[in-house]
Amino acid sequence: MTSSVTRRNFFGASAGLLLASRTLPAATQAPAGLVSGDSRRGNISSALKLIDKEIAAKLKGKKSVIIKPNIVNTGRQLASTHVDALNGILDYLANRWKGPVFIAESSAGYTTEGYSNFKYQQAIDDHKRQNVKLIDLNEEAEYELLHVLNGDLHPTPTRLAKRLLDPSAFVISSAILKTHNTVIATMNIKNMALGAPLHYKRGETKRWNDKRNYHGGIRQTHYDIMLTAQKLCPNWGIGVIDGWEGMEGNGPNSGTPVNQKVAVASTDMVAADRIGAELMGIDPANLGYLDWCGKVGVGTWARENIAVRGDDPAKLQYKYRQHPDIDIELQWRGPLTELPPKLG
Fold first, then answer.
1. Can you tell me the distance from the alpha carbon of 299 to that of 294, in angstroms, rounded to the nearest whole number?
2. Which of 174, 205, 180, 13 is nearest to 89 (CA)?
3. What's 234-280 look like in SS3?
4. Predicted pLDDT at 104
5. Exposure on the CB side of residue 332, measured as CA atoms within 13 A
6. Mean pLDDT, the chain, as a whole number?
7. Can you spell out the DSSP letters for 117-165?
8. Residue 7's CB: how many other CB atoms inside 10 A?
9. What per-residue confidence (pLDDT) applies to 20?
10. Reduced to 3 states, what is the DSSP secondary structure of residue 76?
């Protein structure tokens, strides 16, 4: 007997193998704190307090805390994590964590320029009793390999920041509500998955950027984000979303502001993003990578299994204007038409 695997059925077969290789947890209520208030910093700290018990349980036994901001653009504040989002997280940790805290990012540009432009040192200065340090993951240049699919559906080695894979670390994502030019919307899962791949250090003669491996096509991007989330998620601690000022339209870089004044926090990053999509008025089923992360056990996708504490997301929803290429982005859902017919 002979068998063949076409590119058309590769995604389905691979997803099945991934599902079989990971034991899915029984359905439980994933907690999510949601706060609307008059302070970005205060909203985030308050949202975290709503899930305090669950955070304490996950934090126990860890040796370091890593806060992973989203600096997709080192020069535009609207596109990147605000210093007061970091302040809100550090305020919460102040009386709950005595170990080292690393603010660590692998920006698409030079990470330290983002730290400087967005005044991240102020967060450290505001928390002098805490052991907080800024880390540029590209300059640190320590990595583990993960093979993702490129535009030709070929496995491609990708360097992921080793620090984000440290099993003794408690990783906190500090994300933003933003529309996106490839995957419809970006929050915690996208922040972690595309913040982990590295690129060249300053001064390197040969320039390389493993983030480019994730832009092989509208289906591959969703799939590769899921693969990366599977690799990273064992030490994920909290997903935080700053929706004080979101971005609609031409995200994740060039969109326009939405003054929503909300914050979300969950010990389940998939659940946090699921609530984030609801706040943005986006059909969560359109976020392929998020749906698939739920399917393979990265986190909780089903809305009935997410327990929102605090404010009601239905009362805080704002329908974000989507990216101009939204119709093309959504083609990941349909049948493949760009490939040749099956043979044999």
1. 5
2. 174
3. HHEEEEEEEEEEEEECCCCCCCEEECCCEEEEECCHHHHHHHHHHHC
4. 98
5. 24
6. 92
7. HTTTHHHHHTTTTS-EEEEEHHHH--EEEEEEE-TTS-EEEEEEEGGGG
8. 12
9. 43
10. coil
* Rounded percentage of the chain residues whose pLDDT exceeds 90: 87
Beta strands in 21-139 (DSSP E): 30-36, 64-69, 101-105, 132-136
From residue 51, give the alpha-carbon distance in Å to each of 43, 67, 69, 81.
13, 17, 20, 22
Placement of tokens 């899915």 in the chain: 24
Over the stretch 67-85, which tens digit does the pLDDT of each residue have?
A: 999 999 999 999 999 999 9
How far is residue 145's CA from residue 26's CA, in Å, rounded to a whole number?
30
For the chain, give every domain's residue range.
27-332
Q: Peptide bond preceding 69: is omega within 30 degrees of 0, i.e. cis?
A: no
Q: Is the pLDDT of residue 26 over 90?
A: no
Residues 6+ apart with CB under 8 A from 199: 106, 108, 138, 207, 208, 209, 210, 211
How many Å apart are CA 33 and CA 147, to the nearest integer? 34
The runs of H, that is alpha helices, within 164-245 are 188-195, 218-232
Give tens-digit pLDDT for 254-290: 999 999 999 999 999 999 999 999 999 999 999 999 9
Q: Which CATH number applies to 27-332: 3.40.50, 1.25.40, 1.10.3210, 3.30.70?
A: 3.40.50
Look at the alpha carbons of 81, 59, 43, 39 in this order and tell me if their dihedral is positive or negative: negative
81 closest CA partner among 69, 66, 95: 69
Cα–Cα distance between 33 and 126 in angstroms, integer?
25
The first and second tokens of residue 291, run together, are: 């749906």
Give the C-alpha separation, 98 to 101, whole Å.
9
